[in-house]
């Protein structure tokens, strides 16, 4: 959005932060270029969100913080740097919106956030629960971050919900594991049966007044609308439906967001990056609306 690039946290309410890392990917690589692609498409965005009736910058001071440092090819070293880069943002009372990067970056994001806010509720929009124990024998990939987050005490699963799971899996345990950890998992088929407004209300009831982290994987959206992603799954949601979910979170106590898994190399005309930029715009709008309403 052509925001000023600086790290003046004292005078900021929200910060756009890139995490250009894709060593956790298990199929396609290239999400390290996601932050650049999303920023480029965000030039189109404007300050007023008519759906939420809020002028973002009337209530928020927003900066583009730049990118947190990573070490391509070295996931644990990158985790340390990402967490160290994000924690000062949380300590300053600034809400980060992180542009990924593959979904493995969620673990250091949550480490940074929980170090300041304590165990968090999670609202995850995704076609995969990302709660595998291991993938290719490794503990850290974009398919494992939320299991590790529960093991480390970063999340309160009883207040957390995962929405949009679909596609082929290895066996039924891939989803049952998430439920056994305490997550409320709502597959796409169930969303279609219940209807989006009912699921939004369920999300709000599940989270309640807990401090919440929102993680949006663009593969939540059908590849017809978001082809530029690492692990696409057909049968997903439209870009308009994704906005409906995001806007339905208005009023929740959200202390951080991410938008992940944008792969510009697989993104004709930049439509996936445009989707991600607009979701980030809705996230900024949610923060601004909460401030407008006294939150």
Written account of the structure:
The protein has 295 residues and is α/β, with parallel strands linked by helices. It has one domain (9-292): Arginase, Chain A. Helices cover 36% and strands 17% of the residues. The chain contains 10 helices and 10 strands. It has helices at 34-41, 56-59, 75-91, 106-117, 145-151, 173-180, 188-194, 196-207, 239-247, 271-292; strands at 14-19, 48-49, 54-55, 62-67, 95-100, 121-125, 161-165, 184-187, 212-217, 254-260. It has an 8-stranded parallel β-sheet with strand order 4-1-5-10-9-6-7-8, with helices on both faces. It has a two-stranded antiparallel ribbon with strand order 2-3. Strand 6 (121-125), helix 5 (145-151) and strand 7 form a beta-alpha-beta unit. Helix 3 runs parallel beside helix 4 (106-117) and helix 4 runs parallel beside helix 5 (145-151). The radius of gyration is 17 Å and the shape is globular.
Question: How is the secondary structure organized here?
Answer:
Elements: E1 14-19, H1 34-41, E2 48-49, E3 54-55, H2 56-59, E4 62-67, H3 75-91, E5 95-100, H4 106-117, E6 121-125, H5 145-151, E7 161-165, H6 173-180, E8 184-187, H7 188-194, H8 196-207, E9 212-217, H9 239-247, E10 254-260, H10 271-292
Helix pairs in contact: 1-10, 3-4, 4-5, 9-10
Distinctive features:
295 residues; alpha/beta; Arginase, Chain A; eight-stranded parallel sheet; two-stranded antiparallel sheet; 36% helix; globular
């Amino acid at each position: 959005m052509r925001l000023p690039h600086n790290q003046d946290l004292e005078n900021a309410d929200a910060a756009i932060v890139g995490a250009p890392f894709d060593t956790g990917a298990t199929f396609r690589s290239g999400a390290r270029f996601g932050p650049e692609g999303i920023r480029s498409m965000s030039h189109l965005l404007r300050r007023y969100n008519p759906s939420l009736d809020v002028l973002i910058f009337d209530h928020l001071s927003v900066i583009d913080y730049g990118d947190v440092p990573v070490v391509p090819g070295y996931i644990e070293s990158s985790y340390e740097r990402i967490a160290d880069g994000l924690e000062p943002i949380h300590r300053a009372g600034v809400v980060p919106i992180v542009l990924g990067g593959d979904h493995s970056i969620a673990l250091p994001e949550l480490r940074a956030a929980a170090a300041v806010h304590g165990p968090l509720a999670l609202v995850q929009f995704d076609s995969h629960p990302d709660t595998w124990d291991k993938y290719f024998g490794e503990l850290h990939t974009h398919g494992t971050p939320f299991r590790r987050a529960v093991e480390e005490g970063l999340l309160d699963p009883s207040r957390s919900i995962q929405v949009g799971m679909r596609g082929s899996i290895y066996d039924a345990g891939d989803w049952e594991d998430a439920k056994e950890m305490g997550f409320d998992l709502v597959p796409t088929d169930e969303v279609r049966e219940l209807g989006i407004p009912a699921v939004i209300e369920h999300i709000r009831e599940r989270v309640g007044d807990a401090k919440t982290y929102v993680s949006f994987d663009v593969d939540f959206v059908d590849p017809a609308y978001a082809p530029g992603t690492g692990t696409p799954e057909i049968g997903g949601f439209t870009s308009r439906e994704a906005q409906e979910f995001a806007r339905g979170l208005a009023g929740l106590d959200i202390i951080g967001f991410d938008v992940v898994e944008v792969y510009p190399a697989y993104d004709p005309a930049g439509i996936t990056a445009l989707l991600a930029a607009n979701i980030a715009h809705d996230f900024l709008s949610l923060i601004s609306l909460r401030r407008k309403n006294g939150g």
